[in-house]
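Question (not urgent): is this output format expected?
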Amino acid sequence: MQIITDLHLHSRFSRACSKSIDIPLLEQKAKIKGATLLGTGDFTHPLWLRELKQNLTEEDSIGILKTKTSFPFILTTEISLMYTQENKGRKIHLVILAPDFETVDQINEMLLRHGRLDYDGRPIFGMTSPALVEKLKSINQKIEIIPAHIWTPWFGMFGSKSGFNSIKECFQDQANHIFAIETGLSSTPDMNWRIKDLDNKAILSFSDAHSASSWRLAREATIFNLNNLTYPAIIQAMKNKDPSTFTSTIEYYCEQGKYHYDGHRNCKVRLTPAESRKHGNMCPVCSNKLTIGVLNRVEELAERPEGFTPPNAIPFKRLIPLSEIIAGVLNTTPYTKKTNEIHEKLIAEFKTEFNILLNTPEEQLNTIVEPTITKWILKNRNQEIRFLPGYDGEYGIPLLNEKQEQQLGQKSLSEF
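Got this back:
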């Protein structure tokens, strides 16, 4: 049984998140996307937890929650830690997975001794990463801790602004409890394969969605093949890293992520790592410090060359969400009526976005949409999209129409 999972997302109680998010909407949009298992997100927030308990039923001893129509969820949340270690400010985001509501209640009881939970779905605490892991594992050994979007400059374990250079440095005597990491939108698994420190870790991909829209939810996902869907089975598949059960991941193009290149957003400066070094990591326009992005940081820590592939590597596919493909071809946005009309026609005929993006033949697509849209769906499927890469909090721009292609010509991306 194929299980397409997105276990990192948020509720409407997290900052900068859509106020329309609720469990029925998440289920509806997941089915359109083609995702078959979601994380609940934000189980630390008391109002969201109340909704989870009202809308989801626990199945005995398997750690899976079901809606009234049997769509499955796993209890998840994200916690932000801000503290000082080795005279440096640290800001680390961690995804927490829990097996049942009883465990969640114990987690929240523990966290309330260290701060508030009611002001944000992603609460902030001053404890260290190893202290949090130790406290969580003392509650229940089945709780799992996954460093979130590990390369993000501001809140990633390896981030340039406040991160560490190794898992051991971050988690110290609790490092043995960290079995997996999340790539984040600005890196793909092959970038992470270059880091020896990650050799024995499961490399997972989830969306960190702040809305239930189809171009946010499951824009990154991890795919399993399991006989039975249970919490222990999902965790064991991650830990074993066996390609027969942990089959692949779906990735955002790393160039589309907000922090792939270095740069300075205020000055509209986008730089490759080599260009940043030429400028001493300072903005060539205003002379302030650049935000050092993911590609640069990977190169700094990498002990292997670009292109290295480990034995039994879990395969991955990069995809731009369907609404963004349609909008790019039309030179508009995913929010417009025209984009939505075309999207709805495709879903009505071919059921899910992932089916359209990954499987539907060209001749069938052409019966529903214009050949130009089919062309870019296929280029997306075949990994042929070019970008102006993201930097310093700005998403990268996919080049998805003839005019953009002609403007780019044969120039390298670093020339823009």
